[in-house]
């Protein structure tokens, strides 16, 4: 049976513009110019011999007939996406691209890749090492490892592990103190915190049996990597995720100052695009990493 279909590129442009009610946002999603979206929709209107949008100054709205078409197209394109993903992932083969920060990748992922490849010999991992928030469509990514809470919009977040932290410092900073140190001794030292996350110091002192000390010296940093670097340089005590710094603890460049540890409400998540289908290869990678980290605790 021969199907008489409109140009599929024009249909994609229309569906995106209808979903966003914006030619500009549709252009951004499809990585084309706004003029190209306008041209493709005009060509589709000529194909149907009917208007699809009411165009008003800086706003567009769908005609009643076009709204019904858009709803059906969205379902169909979702089905095509699901079928394509299932076909690609029906076996644990191929390549998946994952965004991850260099700070985390170099400590928790790359050193153990041989173990993953031994478990999944037909599956290749490519990493986009970046501190930028991953845009799945723009950078052709299948997933992303991201640090924080599980509330990132536009993605399904799978928890890999929460931070298990304790205070650490450079040995040079505390060489005169007997280890482990008491909470009051730690409070007398400069403390490092990620800006907006100083509450974790309060939680740690409470767990150690002491109220958060007033008047303590605290520096604030944009990222936990910077706070850790500050501690490594001998400038402060930082709360650090213990599995993440196991090499620094092993080689003596950092020392853990207390046996008191707390689990934070933030950690590493595997972010995958929203949708009805979960690529089993990403699930396998997330399960492997979760097990690998648990073995380091």
Q: Could you explain how this protein is built, in words?
A:
- This protein folds into 3 domains: about 10-90, Arc Repressor Mutant, subunit A, CATH 1.10.10; about 95-160 and about 265-295, Periplasmic binding protein-like II (D-Maltodextrin-Binding Protein, domain 2); about 165-265, D-Maltodextrin-Binding Protein, domain 2 (3-Layer(aba) Sandwich).
- β7 (about 190-195), α8 (about 200-205) and β8 (about 220) form a beta-alpha-beta unit.
- The model has no long low-confidence stretch (mean pLDDT about 90).
- With about 300 residues, the chain is an alpha/beta fold.
- The longest helix is centred in the first third of the chain and has 25 residues, at about 65-90.
- Helix content is about 40%, strand content about 25%.
Question: Nearest-angstrom radius of gyration?
Answer: 26 Å
Distance between the termini: 60 Å
What is the N-to-C order of secondary-structure elements (H for helix, E for strand)? HHHEEHEHHEEEHEHEHEHEEH
Task: Kindly state the percentage of residues in helix.
Answer: 40-55%
Are there runs of 5+ residues with pLDDT below 50, and where? none
Give a short account of the largest sheet.
9 strands, mixed
Could you name the CATH class of the largest domain? Alpha Beta
CATH fold type of the largest domain = D-Maltodextrin-Binding Protein, domain 2
What structural class should be given to the helix and strand makeup? alpha/beta
> How many strands appear in the DSSP assignment?
11
How many independent structural domains? 3
Q: CATH homologous superfamily of the largest domain, by name?
A: Periplasmic binding protein-like II
Tell me what the CATH architecture of the largest domain is.
3-Layer(aba) Sandwich
Helix segment count? Answer: 11
Domain HTH lysR-type: 6-63
Protein name: LysR family glycine cleavage system transcriptional activator
Family: Belongs to the LysR transcriptional regulatory family.
GO molecular function, one term: sequence-specific DNA binding
């Amino acid at each position: 049976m021969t199907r008489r279909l409109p140009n599929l590129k024009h249909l994609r442009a229309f569906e995106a513009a209808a979903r966003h009610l914006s030619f500009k946002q549709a252009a951004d999603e499809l990585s084309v110019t706004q003029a190209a979206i306008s041209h493709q929709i005009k060509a589709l209107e000529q194909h149907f011999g009917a208007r699809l949008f009411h165009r008003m100054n800086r706003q567009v709205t769908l005609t009643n007939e076009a709204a019904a078409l858009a709803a059906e197209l969205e379902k169909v394109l979702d089905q095509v996406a699901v079928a394509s993903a299932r076909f690609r992932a029906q076996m644990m083969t191929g390549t998946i691209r994952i965004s991850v920060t260099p700070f985390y990748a170099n400590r928790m992922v790359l050193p153990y890749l041989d173990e993953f490849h031994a478990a999944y010999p037909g599956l290749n991992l490519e990493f986009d090492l970046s501190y930028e928030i991953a845009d799945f469509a723009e950078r052709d990514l299948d997933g992303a490892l991201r640090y924080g809470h599980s509330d990132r919009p536009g993605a399904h977040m799978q928890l890999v592990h929460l931070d298990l932290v304790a205070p650490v410092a450079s040995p040079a900073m505390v060489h005169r103190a007997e280890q482990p140190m008491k909470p009051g001794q730690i409070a007398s030292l400069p403390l490092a915190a990620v800006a907006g996350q100083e509450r974790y110091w309060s939680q740690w002192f409470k767990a150690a049996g002491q109220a958060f000390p007033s008047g303590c010296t605290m520096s604030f940093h944009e990222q936990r990597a910077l706070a850790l670097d500050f501690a490594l340089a001998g400038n402060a005590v930082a709360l650090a995720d213990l599995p993440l710094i196991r090499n620094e603890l092993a080689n003596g460049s950092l020392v853990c100052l207390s046996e008191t540890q707390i689990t934070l409400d933030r950690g590493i998540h595997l972010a995958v695009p929203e949708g009805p289908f979960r690529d089993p290869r990403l699930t396998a990678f997330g399960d492997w990493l979760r097990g690998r980290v648990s073995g380091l605790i």
